[in-house]
Amino acid sequence: MAYAARKRLAELLEDAEREGDFSTRAEVPADALRIRVDGVGELPLPLRAPVARKLITQARQARFGRGAETLSDTGVRDTWEITPDRITLSGPDWDRALGDVLDGVRHALGLPPTTALRAEPHALLVYGKGQFFLPHQDSEKDDSMVGTLVVSLPSHHSGGELVVEHAGRSVTHRASRHQLTFVAFYADCRHEVRPVTSGYRVTLTMNLLAERVRPTDEDAGGPLADLAHCLTEHFTAPAEQQYSYGPPETTPPNRLVYLLDHEYTQRGLDWDRLKGADATRAARLRQAAGQAGCEAVLALAEVQETWDAVPPYEHYDHYGEVEHFDDCEDDECEGECLLDPDGEPGAERRRSGDFSDYELNDLIEDEINLGWWTRPDGTGGERISLPVAYAEVCATTENKDLTPYRSEYEGYMGNYGNTLDRWYRRAAVVLWPRQRSFAARAQADSEGALRELQGHLDAGALDQALTLARSLAPFWGQYGSGEATAPHFADALRVAVGLGEADTAAMLVAPFRVEALAEEHAPDLARAAGRYGRAWARGAVGGWYGTVGAYTSADRTAWLESLPALCTALRAADGDGEAVATPLVESAWQATRQQLANWLGVGREKERQAGLARLGAPLAHILQAADSGTADTIVTTLRGLPDTALECLIPALRAAGRQPRAIPEGAPAIGAFQALAGHCEERLTRVVARPVRAADDWSLSPAGACGSGCDLCPDLDAFLSSRSRKVLEWPLAQARRQHIHSRIDLAGLPVSHTTRRQGRPYTLVLTKTDAVFSREREARVRAETDLAWLRENGPARQSG
Q: Is 81 helix (H, G, I), strand (E, B) or coil?
């Protein structure tokens, strides 16, 4: 039912196409205009070649815009330009003639009768033989600019046609040799000036500005009952899914996004400056929205589509195989002309360009995002980020019938067919029921929603704030604050405390991750825990740790540095700060404990040492933040780890030693660090006291069984454990050699492994290296250095 409503609505608005076009033309007698140019004087019309050449002497090479840049490239735009400050327009009938033309342009382009057009001179352009301007799109140079007016001065020339295209249609305009030729078109239309073949083409370009002349008549237009009925049906029927799999939706969509045909800038997006059929359709929708109890805003949409596409030069036989490529000169070619530089068969590199002549087969995927919209009260606009669901989209003109601003084609890659990605910029009318206005806008602007909720709380409107906050539940986890920064978390937390309803408060703070928490949030965190209880606080902390986000280990490490100060502030705050501090520390310890176990299992020494050393500072911060019970539990666990854990514990003690003031006097962490230092001193003393390896002792610890029950690992361990055997020559097939390679590399053993490729099978040669001795010497030096530091600078010595 919902799809039927959107389809019917698009059909009802289709006839608006007849009420305006994207380009129009008019001619006026040449004597209506007198045009004077500094350095040349008044131009006699029609223009002759000597006057045109004199204009060129006063002109500069014309430039063009690309993004934020202004460029000069005769390969793109080759023409001469005179700026408007050097041009004077006059004539006894000029103002009247221009006014009549602008009235006709407004009607022909379908602009609403509530606006008037004004033309502002932009430049005088001179095109000589061979000069041109490649297809481009004009920038809107003023908030009220809607289009461009090109006035061609009469002259004897050929070529230089102005071609304007929009939505798959194009119009070619040729200038009169005897009259002024006016061509107007919307600013988002792509257009070009083809090369002049003889003579000189001289034009005056003007910006078309739209200004409101009287208020909009909200009651104007024909019957709107059908449109209003479609809106009501759309907002009451369950939203349908784009694909058939998955459980059906039971709730109706929150909004309707009707895509308009033209492009607009943020500055130019206004109900009174819509173009052509857009103006009529938007006005009808706005009126129907009023009848259906809906609000309407204008928005800017970014659209991407991925199509299964066929290049125009490919032909297929009835089996679907490529028969021939029309632009390849080799009659025997079977697709080799599309090979990539490495000669991969059937692969074509991704490339950008104009693919308007490609045949589109099936739409594979599409994505629409709103990036800007106006406010319902008409007081301006705001930047947003809102993905649009399939069940919310409606359009009379399909995307594929418009000209994309960018296209990328990727040829056949083996696992899927040829794909063509196309990007569009479209405006949209976005509607939602008034009673759902808060939720509809909150999906795009979570920060604004939180401000509004806080405003109701500050005004004492608790029931209204609760009702609005509850309406966020269906989407807040997906569209809410997500990876929001600390200020957004502060807003959500403050509102959560003020609502007084545990479930709704938990929903509001759930989308954040733990990295958003800071010392400044401690008072509100403690109040929330005091108001909603310890189970609520533990659940919230678990959600912050478990929220999937694009954080890195560096994000978490940086946040852990602030954990001691946060926990200190929590315990000092009114409420129940300990209810938040305890699960924060416990969750941090569990995550770090898992990382610690992972690194202890790594056999490659340098890799393991680096990983464990990186955990030192986070471990120190966790101990600094812990209460006495948690600190004792952590130390007990650490004391039970193997000697390799010293590669983490010593860096942790060093990190604590660098920040003695981070531990308040009498804090549980002092005893924890002293106990940990004593444990490390015992372990290091034993390491240093071990006998030095004998010069003939080549024994190594066994690599252990691989778990697959193979017959190779026991023989490998026997070789490793031998004091005297330094070399093992082992005839093995390739797969068995690879197994031994992986066992040695995984364990990081000081054993080289090479293959002697003689005989069958080849012989694997294992050789114990001098690292058997050098590693042990380096470990002893490290232990002696760490033990000396610990005895002189460890936490036990700093406690006083």
A: strand
| Cα 493 to the center of its chain, rounded Å | 26
Looking at every residue in the chain, the average pLDDT score rounds to 84
Residue among 410, 165, 423 nearest 311 (CA): 410
Sign, CA dihedral 540-542-543-545, equals positive
Find the angle CA(729)-CA(733)-CA(738) to the nearest 5 degrees: 85
Q: Report pLDDT for 67.
A: 58
- Do 12-110+115-212 and 713-769 agree at the fold level? no
Question: Up-side HSE of residue 412: CA atoms within 13 Å toward CB?
Answer: 16
How many other β-carbons are positioned within 10 Å of the β-carbon of residue 68?
5
Check residue 631 and report its DSSP letter.
Answer: H
Longest CA span, the chain: 114
Query: Considering only CA atoms, which of 233, 239, 218, 236 is closest in space to residue 282?
Result: 218
CATH number for the domain whose boundaries are 713-769: 3.30.1370
Per-residue pLDDT, 351: 62
Rounded to an integer, what distance in angstroms lies between the CA atom of residue 696 and that of residue 768?
Answer: 12
Domain regions of the chain by residue span: 12-110+115-212, 225-438, 550-689+772-800, 713-769
Question: CATH number of the domain at 12-110+115-212, please?
Answer: 2.60.120.620
Q: Are 266 and 380 in contact (CB under 8 A)?
A: no
Q: Provide the 8-state DSSP code for 210.
A: E
* Neighbour count for residue 335 (Cβ, 10 Å): 19
Q: Which amino acid is residue 352, in one-letter code? A: S
Average pLDDT over residues 341-368: 67
- Quick one: pLDDT at residue 346? 41
Please tell me the distance from the alpha carbon of residue 305 to that of residue 6, in angstroms, as a whole number. 20
